[in-house]
Amino acid sequence: MSESRTAYPPLEEVRKTVRPRWYRSPIDKQRLRELCERSDREGFVQAGGHLALYLLLATLTVVFWTKGLWWLFFLSLWCLGFVASFFKGTSVHELGHGTVFRSRQLNRVFLYLLSLIGWWDPFDYASSHTYHHRYTTYPEADRENLLPLEPSLRPGLLLQLFTLNLFTRPGRNFGKGGLLWTVYLTVRRALGVQGGLSAIASQEWLERLHEDQPEAYRQSVLWSRVLIAFHGSVLLLALLTGLWVLPLVVSVAAYIANCGSYFFGVTQHCGLRENVPDFRKNTRSIQLPRPFEFLYWHMNWHTEHHMYAGVPCYHLKSLARELADDMPEPQSLVGAWKEMRKIHRQQQHDPDYEFDRPVPPPNNDRASDSDEALAASIGDLAPQALKSNR
Fold first, then answer.
1. What does the alpha-carbon distance between residue 13 and residue 347 come to, in Å, rounded to a whole number?
2. How would you class 136 by CB atoms within 10 Å of its CB: exposed for 0-12, middle for 13-18, buried for 19 or more?
3. Which of 33, 86, 128, 294 is the most exposed place for a label (fewest CB within 10 A)?
4. CA–CA dist 288, 294 (Å, integer)
5. In this predicted model, what pLDDT tens digit does every residue of 63-110 receive, in sequence order?
6. CA gap 223, 122 in Å, rounded
7. What is the C-alpha to C-alpha distance for residues 10 and 1, in angstroms, rounded to an integer?
8. Residue 365 above 60 pLDDT?
9. Cβ neighbours for 27, distance < 8 A, ≥ 6 positions apart
10. What letter would DSSP give residue 65?
11. DSSP notation for 131-192
12. What is the phi/psi pair of residue 287, to 5°?
């Protein structure tokens, strides 16, 4: 962890030199095939249910605004933001893998629709997340989450996370920060402006990805223009009609009440190890109540997701049961945060400290029928240029 972060080799070179031999907990091949089955019905329950909840709350928010029921308006707006905050980084993550629906067309429709609401860039993310899965926490090849991450509880941050996430800066994990930074970075991308932000870890990572995947970058530029046109149209409609609530429920909603997406999401890799080919040591699973698990698209089973990324999110809990004997016990959300905060305090005194999670010994002696292609699948995530580059 003390190594220089300023001289990473080109990603084309990294693909040739960094070759983790991942340990995956054994599972019967036929059972894995069953768990990898995609379902349009279950996809509609997950994606359609999440979108329907958003539309219901958006409708209530508009109604309360038009009737001047201000306490109900603010309560509904907060709940709307809490639900919509999972459109950026969570729902679009799983849709980006292409594993939610059996139909690729349905995956794309929901991916682009939710990406519009959440100001999300699915093309940059596809490049980044492909590296993240193939080289999880190997910083030469995966800086989607550049360790060590800080599990921050600073008052200024918490104030924004529980109200309007306006000013938070992009940092050491993928994302554009709060709403103002998001709009600024989206406009830069739409204009084709490159460089100048490499001091920000997430932006340095994007610059490397753009060099490595120029076609995905071109798609990202076009998508940024679509985002500006879409949200600009919402603002124009509000100007013409006087319905100022429209930008709140469409363009701003994903940046209201970001507390849930923050507290759940930080647990995925924070405080864990770099450069180790065992997902049990660099990725964390947590237990969540079922409503939160639904909004989080079951990504609380994150170790299992990394081991077998081709398994749809709605089957991850079943996968967790299959692998339980070979996994560390999943923590509670509070337990995970206590662990992360303790690790972070230790790292303040010893920057080279890494928490080595106790795990069961590798179960290589148990017979397993799973084939490597099925086990290593990341769905339809990878951009075309990366599909054959392993």
1. 31
2. buried
3. 33
4. 9
5. 999 999 999 999 999 999 999 999 999 999 999 999 999 999 999 999
6. 8
7. 20
8. no
9. 308, 319, 322, 323, 368, 370
10. H
11. HHHHTTT-TTT--SB-SSPP----HHHHHHHHSB--SPPP-SBSS--SHHHHHHHHHHHHTT
12. -95, 140
DSSP string, 318-348: HHHHHHGGGSPPPEEHHHHHHHHHHHHHHHH
- 260 phi/psi in degrees, rounded to 5: -65, -50
Record the tokens describing residue 86, joined without a space.
């999972």
User: Rounded to 10 degrees, what is the CA torsion of 101, 102, 105, 108?
Assistant: 30
CB proximity list for 325: less than 8 A, separation 6 or greater: 360, 363
Query: Rounded distance, CA 306 to CA 269, Å?
Result: 11
What element of type H or E holds 287?
strand 286-287
Token pair recorded at residue 334: 């509070």
How confident is the model over 158-211, as pLDDT tens digits?
A: 999 999 999 999 988 888 899 999 999 999 999 999 888 988 999 999 999 999
